[in-house]
Amino acid sequence: MISVNDFRTGLTIEVDNGIWRVMDFQHVKPGKGAAFVRSKLRNLRNGAVQEKTFRAGEKVAKAQIDNRKMQYLYANGDQHVFMDNESYEQIELPTASIEYELKFLKENMEVHIMMYNTETLGVELPKSVELEVIETEPGIKGDTASGGSKPAKLETGLIVQVPFFINQGDKLIINTDEGTYVSRA
């Protein structure tokens, strides 16, 4: 058991028969009444986001999540195959359970698979990935980094807003939390 006073971003807990990851939290001490913790939680089974308030000092069960390093191999219909780099064991995850993550996954990319006992919960992406621009309007001489943006389609199908100086074939660093352009690679 863990106290809600010890919440931190990324912590996994068991609440209401679900496994949740703490995305954000705030300790609130009102002038009148008892202190409480306001939190934003993501359900690791279905991806739903929920705001929940706990009384200060309330105890919740900590969920023991194992992160196994695996390599994304290929798509097989609506299943996606991942391989454990140490045991060479392969698992398949349905498209529906990793829809958001697929925007950033390339073949042979290493990711962490979240496991709870024997249940596979999903894919944990790195904070940023390197993707190649496959389609964008050509840059015009004189365009600067501070002068606006244009859409660019990346090799995984993701469309992001990029500065005018980015051209087709450029490799970009993309933030996986927000799906936004960070810089050239």
From TrEMBL:
PROSITE patterns listed in its UniProt record: EFP (PS01275)
Coiled coil: none
Protein keywords: Cytoplasm, Elongation factor, Protein biosynthesis
UniProt xrefs under Gene3D superfamilies: 2.30.30.30, Nucleic acid-binding proteins
Membrane-spanning residues: none
Compartments where found: Cytoplasm
N-terminal signal peptide: none
Stretches assigned to the Elongation factor P C-terminal domain: 129-184
Involved pathway(s): Protein biosynthesis; polypeptide chain elongation
Superkingdom of origin organism: Bacteria
Pfam families (alphabetical): EFP (PF01132), EFP_N (PF08207), Elong-fact-P_C (PF09285)
InterPro entries attached to this UniProt entry: Elong-fact-P_C, NA-bd_OB-fold, Rib_uL2_dom2, Transl_elong_fac_P/YeiP, Transl_elong_KOW-like, Transl_elong_P/YeiP_cen, Transl_elong_P/YeiP_CS, Transl_elongation_fac_P
Protein family membership: Belongs to the elongation factor P family.
Protein name (Swiss-Prot/TrEMBL): Elongation factor P
Record organism: Cytobacillus citreus
Gene designation: efp
